[in-house]
Structures
1.
Amino acid sequence: MLVYKMTKNRVEAGSEKRHETLPNIRRLNRQELGELMAALGEPSYRASQLHRWLYSNQALDFETMSTFGRKLRQRLASEWSIIPATLAGSESEFLDEGSTTPLSTAKFLIRLEDSELVESVLIPSEERMTACISSQVGCPLRCAFCATGQMGFRRNLLASEMTDQVFLLDSEAIKRHGRGLSNIVYMGMGEPLLNLDNVFESIRMLSEADYNFSISEKKITISTVGLPAEMERVARSGLKTKLAISLHSADQEVRERMMPVAIDVTLDRLANAISSYNAMTGQPVTLVYMLLEGINDSPDDARKLARFARRGLCKINLIDYNSIVTLKFKQCCDSSKNMFIQRLLDAGLLVTVRKSQGASINAACGQLATRPAR
Ligand code: SF4
């Protein structure tokens, strides 16, 4: 059974009670805040002020909204509550019993308004401080190697539930490492492109130039299995975010076995979608490829990957598989991995190899699934 450790500064006494009786204003997107203010007979700039109070100042009480008159504050407080997502628990990678590394990856259990749980991961390094955040509770795509996929799909996250993960991890990063977030990846639980309106809204909130938390769109990566129509929407959005595509095999049959979505989105369709994305944005995509022993790590697999990558403007990011007890896959050995890397380099491709972080606390790629945190 989970025991939630609420952080005092984000949840006020009595908020649970208000939650039962009044709707949460953080469920409204920017446009709906505008409609709310219009319905209250307020000028349109009030909606921007309210948005700023909620997501820059992270106000938890309408009384603190000093740019509003008393009547408006009281009216809002009588009809709405303010309930952010909260930290329910955390785990860090351990070196020895009780001692964490200075740059330990940490996983956070986040409790949403309706008590659903998602996980977010803080990945510190010398150069970066990255938050990996979730976009859905569970995931409908059921990739064979992924713990989230085994949970099934429960619901999409609201934009504010994604930004709350960022705000919580930013303050944890400052507390633990003395510096805030430098990068954000939408790579936690769920497929972000299946919740694109809310993902767009959250990115716009996080990159508001003069909000207390503000990050450049260029420091944000959206990760997807590669859904062509939605990739086109990302390209058309005008956002300067990066796009990562979980490829994991450039063999149609193997990819279908690993990722059921590949039955519909064939490699040919995906290659065309990548080329269109390249053409529309002028940007490359990163192909994420998780090496699995005996499944996608042979010389022939490397050759197929190189051929696929050359069909568009692509970089390659190789990652290790992190074992999940209930699943049968295995990490590939160092010699296969080195051979694989060399073949890609020989083909003239830009390859990065990501050292797996967070595997010991099930915080690494493919391992996120909500379960009790210690
Ligand atoms: S890998 Fe991503 S898309 Fe596939 S099931 Fe897991 S969360 Fe969903």
Note: The chain has two domains: 15-79, 86-361.
2.
Amino acid sequence: MTRTDGFEDDEFWTEFYDFLFSEQRYSQAEELLDSSPLLAFTPGARVLDLCCGPGVFTVPLARRGHHVTGVDRSPAMLERAREFCGAAGAKARFVRTDALHHVEPEAYDVVLNMFTSFGYFEEHAANMRVLRNMRACLEPGGRLLLDVAGKELLARKVVPPKVVHRGGDLLVQTDTVLDDWARLRSDWVLVRGDRVRRASLVWFVYSAVELRAMAEEAGFEEVEIFGGFDGRPYDQDAERLILRASRQG
Ligand SMILES: C[S@@+](CC[C@H](N)C(=O)[O-])C[C@H]1O[C@@H](n2cnc3c(N)ncnc32)[C@H](O)[C@@H]1O
């Protein structure tokens, strides 16, 4: 039995790949880019896809004519992203680095952070720093779009453990609330043939109010919250917590 801890472990993203990045997610990304008012960027926009993973959004954005940079700290994820990009006949730039340190001053019109790729650092100050880095990467007038599973939504489905079958694999995911709902730990057990693989992830979960306050503290303006990519409000029918904000000046 092997065990993985934390988002920084390259093996986690590879081992659990099929469950995190299903074919359905790739096709859903295409659909969202065709239909979402929140993802309708000006033609040829310079887009930073921060924590891009295997390029689920990076590549289709590049194919739609945007100038996209995908940043991730996992070599395995970037390798998949590059392969996907090549196979799609698209052009994108990929950079291996840590979101904690990635700043390209005023180089982008859009910063994207998709599929709960925020709140990974143990210290609140580090997560704030990532937000400040995102702002620094934007040209004045540029926009951040950050998509997470909001705390209000997670509260509805944290228990009981989730069991997923895919192919011959079985995944059991158990979530535990930590630190008065500040953070969540997700314990994953993957049974693949005779092998059992365990992983444990801890991350900050945010309510809409908390995330808005953090964005404002980081210097963002025109902060808006949505409950889905169709632009719906963040209310009882919300599916995601999506923050859109702009850098002015
Ligand atoms: C949940 S996946 C999301 C990937 C992609 N945004 C998507 O929509 O499919 C999170 C990604 O964040 C990356 N990551 C984790 N910590 C990071 C860090 N400190 N700096 C940069 N990337 C990081 C992981 O390698 C992983 O590819």
Note: Residues 7, 13, 21, 51-53, 56-57, 72-74, 77, 98-100, 114-117, 120 surround S-adenosylmethionine (CB under 6 Å).
3.
Amino acid sequence: MVTDAYRPLSLADALIFLAEQDCLPVAGGTDLMVQAARGTGVRPNFEKTLLFIAHLQELQHIHVTDTGILIGAAATLTALLEHEGIPAVFKEILKQMAAAPTRHMATLAGNIVNASPAGDTLPYLYALDAELVLRSRDRERILPVADFIRGPKQTVREKDELLTEIRIPAEEFNIQRYRKLGQRKGMSLTKVSFLGLARKKAGRIEDIRIALGSVAPRIVRSRNIEERMLGKSLTEARTMEPLVRKDYAVLIVPIDDARSTAQYRKQVSLRLIRDFIENLK
Ligand SMILES: Cc1cc2nc3c(=O)[nH]c(=O)nc-3n(C[C@H](O)[C@H](O)[C@H](O)COP(=O)(O)OP(=O)(O)OC[C@H]3O[C@@H](n4cnc5c(N)ncnc54)[C@H](O)[C@@H]3O)c2cc1C
């Protein structure tokens, strides 16, 4: 049962509180409330003191610069969707998450720290090599998102740390494909998500990134496989496709759950990879 909740006046205040007490940061609360729910009319059950952070001014920013995008941990999905500097493919992903009322509350930071393999923003953040700023009262560290998430619901966040900022490097891609497969078009949890990004120059692949969600304990992205396609002509890439797909098949190890079967997830993922590479034009 909840005993305490704390609403700090500033980020510094929040970090002091976190250094002194083992508590649970609450941003939009859209994951936490579901996890703690105990049925209609029954108060949700939290084992720790809650630390509200959604209102903190220091965490609201969205800055777009020449080198990348800096997103404060309290920036909501709606704020990102409304910001003109957010890339179209990222907006396409955000638009397919939940419904508007949830997006008004939910944060990008919450989606990351929740560390679900089905977290819809994660394939994009992995593909772009996003970095996370973690702050505690006495220190700051910056980690690639892929090093932050250790497995489903597991991160390397220390108890006294807050994720304060997400940094997404500026990259240009002229081929972009995103697919989210769910039970229905909107408001559904992901069975499989696929993001393919590529930069083609003079008929050759200058950069390529492929990331998949919901098909393994962590987001699937392989730099080794991507690197093998760099510098290849589009015809060469298409010729390589069956071998590339075979290598991804080893990394794609989905589970059966209420949303889908492992077999369906694997088949669909491999088809999405094939279609992306075959249609690189
Ligand atoms: C109806 C509904 C539909 C949904 N649809 C989708 C969907 O389509 N796709 C999808 O990916 N998700 C979906 N979600 C899940 C959820 O909305 C997202 O994961 C959202 O981004 C979580 O953000 P939040 O701010 O609400 O996180 P919270 O619930 O506040 O927090 C989530 C976790 O992160 C921690 N945390 C939050 N911020 C910080 C921080 N700054 N530093 C340290 N720890 C922090 C919290 O302690 C908690 O462990 C849905 C949820 C609901 C209720």
Note: The two ends are 57 Å apart (CA to CA).
